[in-house]
Write a structure and sequence with these properties.
Elements lengths: L1 E6 L2 E6 L5 H11 L2 E7 L5 H12 L3 E6 L10 E7 L2 H12 L3 E2 L2 E2 L1 E4 L25 H9 L12 H39 L1
Antiparallel strand pairs: 1-2, 3-5, 3-8, 4-5, 6-7
């Protein structure tokens, strides 16, 4: 990126070394300076998190709140925090995990980026591969000539049955997570009330 400065009708462009956040996160992770903090207030922005770290831990950092995965607790704020050195990051993890409570919320953290599992092969996750190697040449020819009448799942296919089962499981899971999140919100409120006494 570039910053624009205008001085006495003279425009000066100064090239900035503005690295995108994902690049900064990856670099900080490699160097052991990245900390993943959980159970923050969801209303905290980057500046509030930086101020919290400065006030509570007497450490300087940069921070980036992150979005929540689909089934994660929506009341549980998360952020990546980048410290100046590996030792400072280790110190922050130790202090936070030893019982730092902010607004009635005990914070906890770990070092590094979240590890998202990748599929072992290049195949799409959840897709079934049906081998046609056991078909005789006549069956393969018939399959090539077959005309598809619909791209949607039909009630007489295994995909349809699996899709219905999957939708039912997802609905049950969403309901259970909703109940769990409400219970956690209530427990947080009662914990915060106890801490104020």
């Amino acid at each position: 990126g570039f910053q624009l400065y205008i001085c006495h009708k003279l425009t000066i462009y100064i090239k900035c070394n503005l690295q995108p956040w994902h690049g900064k996160l990856a670099q900080a992770d490699k160097e052991g300076r990245l900390v993943y903090i959980q159970n923050l207030d969801i209303r905290f922005g980057a500046s509030e998190i930086v101020e919290l770290i400065r006030e509570a831990l007497q450490l300087s950092c940069t921070a980036k709140p992150i979005n929540h995965p689909t089934y994660d607790d929506p009341n549980n704020g998360k952020a990546y925090v980048v410290f100046n050195s590996r030792n400072i990051a280790d110190e922050a993890v130790m202090k936070i995990n030893s019982g730092l409570v902010v607004g009635g919320r005990p914070l906890y953290c770990s070092k590094g980026l979240l590890k998202v599992p990748k599929p072992a092969s290049g195949a799409l996750v959840g897709h079934l591969t049906i081998s046609n190697q056991k078909m005789n040449p006549r069956q393969r020819e018939e399959q090539k000539k077959a005309v598809s009448t619909s791209h949607c799942s039909q009630p007489n296919t295994i995909e349809y049955d699996l899709a219905l089962d999957w939708m039912l499981v997802r609905e049950k899971q969403a309901m259970k997570f909703s109940i769990l999140h409400k219970r956690h919100a209530g427990e947080r409120k009662s914990f915060a009330a106890k801490m104020e006494k």
